[in-house]
Amino acid sequence: MPVKPSEQEEEYFAKLEIQKRLQEQEKRAQALAEDEKKRLRELHYMHCPKCGTPLQEEVLHDIAVDICPACHGVWLDDGELGKLTEGGKNIFSFLRGIFS
């Protein structure tokens, strides 16, 4: 004769099933977010934020600076401005010389 599960057993297994589904949903959402982040990086990496032209990398005093050939924008990575200004005032005249 089959034994019918109690209400507590049914509730326990229902909770387990819900937790399992929520964990799977969270994993799928994380994977989608990572894929979207990777896609956006590939789409925008080394492109000018202003006009979208591919950036050219120039080395100034051992620091790689990204320069847009179309709009002449200069883009610096984190900490590069501090490194450029440590060298003195000559770096700014050097930058003016590049674009004139």
Structure description:
This protein is α+β, with helices and mostly antiparallel strands and 100 residues long. The chain is built from three helices and three strands; from the N terminus they run αβββαα. It has helices at 7-44, 80-86, 90-99; strands spanning 56-60, 63-67, 74-75. A three-stranded antiparallel sheet has the order 1-2-3. Strand 2 (63-67) and strand 3 (74-75) form a beta hairpin. It is rod-shaped. The N and C termini lie far apart (94 Å). The mean pLDDT is 84.
Record keyword descriptors for this entry.
100 residues; 12% strand
Task: Give the structure's gist in a few sentences.
By secondary structure, the protein is of the alpha+beta class. 55% of the residues lie in helices and 12% in strands.
Strand-helix topology:
Elements: H1 7-44, E1 56-60, E2 63-67, E3 74-75, H2 80-86, H3 90-99
Antiparallel strand pairs: 1-2, 2-3
